[in-house]
Amino acid sequence: MSSVSVPQESSHSDELLMQQGLLFSDTLKDLKSLRKQLYSAADYFERTYNEEEQKEIVEDTLKDYAIKALINTVDHLGSVAYKVNNFLDDKMVEISGMDLRLSCLEQRLRTCREFVSLGGLSQQSLVFEAHKKHHKRYIFPVEQSRP
Questions:
Q1: What is the H or E stretch that residue 40 is in?
Q2: Could you tell me the residue range of the domain that residue 93 belongs to?
Q3: In terms of Cα–Cα distance, which of 65, 80, 96 is closest to 31?
Q4: How confident is the model at residue 4, as a pLDDT?
Q5: CA–CA gap between residue 67 and residue 49 (Å, rounded)
Q6: Is residue 126 in a domain?
Q7: Number of domains in the chain
Q8: 7 vs 2, 13, 74, 131, 132, CA distance in Å?
Q9: Residues 6+ positions from 34 with CB-CB distance below 8 Å
């Protein structure tokens, strides 16, 4: 049952990653579009300023447009920064989870190695103890027969 949940979790994560990538890409395209709009507006205001008699009205309109465009740009950059931060936060949570799993696996491996090592030592000590007992048994009867 756990093998079934892992692929689903992986595909869900991949799907979320793809959605985030698309949203980020769309946001960058919007910024590029905003840049084109600003250049176009600058060209328009430059032509209009040179052709108009009432330059003060053109200047005021340009100021209003520039302020709104600047606010839009800052808002867009804030949105991009927010999305990037969320993406990085999600990845850091994922990495922390993987780090925790890795630490658990390392701890299990150390425990298994210690268990195997202690098991080998206990077998060696049993062999050593058995050797002592047998040695005493064979020597003891010989010592009794000499007196």
A1: helix 2-51
A2: 2-108
A3: 80
A4: 43
A5: 18
A6: no
A7: 1
A8: 9, 10, 40, 55, 57
A9: 69, 72, 73, 76
Residue 83 corresponds to which tokens in the numbers above? 């999305």
Cα 8 vs. chain centroid, distance in angstroms? Answer: 19
Does residue 36 belong to any structural domain of this protein? Answer: yes
What pLDDT shows up at residue 2? 42
Residue 54 — φ and ψ, nearest 5°? -95, 80
Residue tagged 């910024």 (tokens):
31
Q: Report the C-alpha gap between 87 and 13 in whole angstroms.
A: 12
The reply to whether 140 falls in a domain is: no
30 in a structural domain: yes
In this structure, are residues 79 and 31 in contact, taking their beta carbons and an 8 Å threshold?
no
Segments of the chain with pLDDT less than 70: 1-10, 120-147
Number of H helices, E strands in the chain: 2, 0
State residue 8's pLDDT score: 59
Q: Structure tokens of 18? A: 């793809």
| Amino acid (1-letter code) at residue 103 | S
CA distance 132 to 30: 85
- The set of residues, in sequence order, having a beta carbon less than 8 Å from that of 67 and lying 6+ positions away, is none
16 near 86, Cβ under 8 Å? no
